[in-house]
């Protein structure tokens, strides 16, 4: 008999975090699940952590993903037997009632259930995301206003995942492959809902470097350009505004990390794309104040 939920966990060299992650899975109030851990041939004690449970519901697959986490997730999808698939990154956690609440939200008209997440830093909750209303998860809004869903915070019908072809494994969309999948699901008519309870914990790690910020920005722009043709006139002015939004987001990330020159460069690029942004002036001033002053 097939389980009700297949949980897919890609992992690489995060054995200690994976232990906490799997503990949160085994603590679920819904016990009818299978867990597929896709291990990218970790060099640490990942295999020992998984095998130590001796839990027949937990399956370990060794798979070399060549640096493409989407490939690991797709391996998990292909191995899944349940009607519903949930993704969980190996450094993230779930509250014990995560599956219970998500499954309770499932009706005949729902294909994807999402939920807010707490942000964890050094073991403490520092912030949280907000529930996304159903209209915010429609194709046009996801494309033009940006991604509002997190891989570790969705429950989705396996049949729809398979129909969409799973996650895109192109290197050009690495770090934005989840946004691309949600868009393809929405384009297929997926009906999405969001429960209000924050039943996930997203772990924040060390500072991003500029290369990582730029990579995510370019991946997000690539996803945008791939899907804009679905809109009349390729989105027109809304497409230009969406490009500016992505670049502005990268600028704000650089700003928060104290990298004023990089932030200013991106803010200028965003302004050229769409100058009608009230938020640009205060952002420019904030970045200017962060620039190093003349030395005596």
Summarize the structure in words.
It is a single chain. The protein has 296 residues and is α/β, with parallel strands linked by helices. It folds into two domains: 5-203, Spore Coat Polysaccharide Biosynthesis Protein SpsA, Chain A; 210-290, no CATH class. It contains eleven helices and eleven strands. The protein has helices at residues 15-26, 46-52, 69-79, 98-104, 139-145, 158-164, 177-187, 210-227, 236-256, 260-273, 280-290, and strands at residues 5-11, 33-39, 58-62, 84-87, 93-94, 112-114, 117-121, 124-128, 154-157, 192-194, 200-203. The strands form two sheets. A seven-stranded mixed beta sheet has the order 3-2-1-4-9-6-10, sandwiched between helices. α1 (15-26) links the parallel β1 and β2. α7 runs parallel beside α8 (210-227), α8 (210-227) runs antiparallel to α9 (236-256) and α10 runs antiparallel to α11 (280-290). It is globular. The protein starts with a strand and ends in a 6-residue tail after the last helix.
């Amino acid at each position: 008999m097939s389980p009700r939920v297949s949980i897919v966990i890609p992992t690489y060299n995060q054995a200690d975090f994976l232990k906490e992650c799997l503990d949160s899975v085994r603590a679920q109030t819904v016990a009818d699940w299978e867990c597929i851990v896709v291990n990218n041939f970790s060099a640490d004690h990942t295999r020992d952590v998984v095998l130590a449970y001796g839990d027949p519901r937990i399956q370990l697959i060794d798979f070399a993903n060549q640096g493409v986490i989407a490939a690991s997730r797709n391996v998990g999808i292909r191995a899944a037997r349940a009607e519903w698939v949930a993704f969980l990154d190996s450094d993230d956690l779930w509250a014990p009632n995560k599956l219970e609440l998500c499954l309770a939200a499932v009706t005949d008209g729902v294909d994807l259930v999402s939920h807010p997440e707490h942000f964890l830093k050094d073991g403490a909750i520092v912030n949280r995301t907000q529930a996304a209303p159903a209209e915010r998860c429609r194709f046009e809004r996801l494309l033009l206003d940006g991604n509002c869903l997190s891989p570790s915070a969705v429950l989705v019908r396996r049949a729809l995942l398979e129909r969409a072809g799973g996650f895109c494994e192109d290197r050009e969309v690495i770090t934005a492959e989840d946004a691309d999948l949600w868009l393809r699901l929405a384009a297929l008519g997926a009906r999405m809902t969001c429960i209000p309870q924050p039943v996930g914990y997203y772990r924040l790690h060390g500072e991003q470097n500029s290369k990582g910020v730029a990579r995510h920005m370019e991946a997000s722009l690539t996803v945008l350009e791939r899907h804009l043709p679905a809109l009349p006139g390729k989105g027109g002015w809304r497409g230009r505004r969406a490009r500016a939004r992505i670049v502005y987001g990268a600028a704000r990330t650089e700003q928060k990390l104290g990298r004023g020159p990089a932030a200013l460069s991106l803010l200028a690029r965003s302004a050229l794309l769409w100058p009608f942004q009230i938020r640009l002036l205060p952002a420019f001033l904030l970045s200017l104040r962060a620039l190093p002053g003349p030395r005596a």
